[in-house]
Write a structure and sequence with these properties.
The protein is of the alpha+beta class. It is built from 5 helices and 4 strands, in the order E-E-H-H-H-H-H-E-E. Helix 2 runs antiparallel to helix 3.
Length: 147
């Protein structure tokens, strides 16, 4: 959800209103684009440097954690990556890329797709997973078969 960053401000009548913080949204969008480009070039050390700097600058934003876990995942550190996916989700439980990454990499039927930002998230919220019941009535989560 682009532009979901808000700051509390006091209006002229003394009431508190929320205003969109365009600068933060732009910074996070640029960060995601930079990390995507560097990751495609396999420059993971450079990615880690800019992400850790962003974590210090934007401590309450889920984006740096989500990006860091992508780099950890790409460098084979799955368990540590899962910690950062959860941290991103804990900072903002509505942040779709963290949810998408947790769903795609955090289950036994992982399909390995990584979401750098909202543009990578599934447009269709329907899942390709179904519950298939065996002859004993036990449900098993399986992928739908493509016909």
């Amino acid at each position: 959800k682009k532009g979901r960053y808000f700051a509390l401000c006091v209006d002229l009548k003394g009431g508190i209103v929320m205003q969109e913080n365009q600068n933060l949204a732009k910074s996070m969008s640029e960060l995601c684009a930079s990390v995507r480009r560097l990751s495609d070039e396999k420059r993971y050390d450079d990615c880690q440097n800019i992400i850790t700097r962003a974590m210090m600058d934007y401590q309450n934003s889920p984006e740096p954690h989500n990006l860091f876990d992508i780099i950890l995942e790409k460098t084979g550190r799955h368990m540590l990556a899962m910690n950062h996916f959860r941290a991103a989700w804990a900072l903002d439980s509505t942040y779709e890329p963290a949810i998408e990454n947790l769903n795609s990499l955090g289950n036994p039927l992982s399909y390995g797709r990584l979401a750098f930002d909202e543009s990578d998230c599934s447009k269709n919220k329907a899942t390709d997973l179904i519950i298939d019941y065996d002859s004993y009535g036990i449900g098993h989560v399986v992928r739908r078969r493509v016909k």
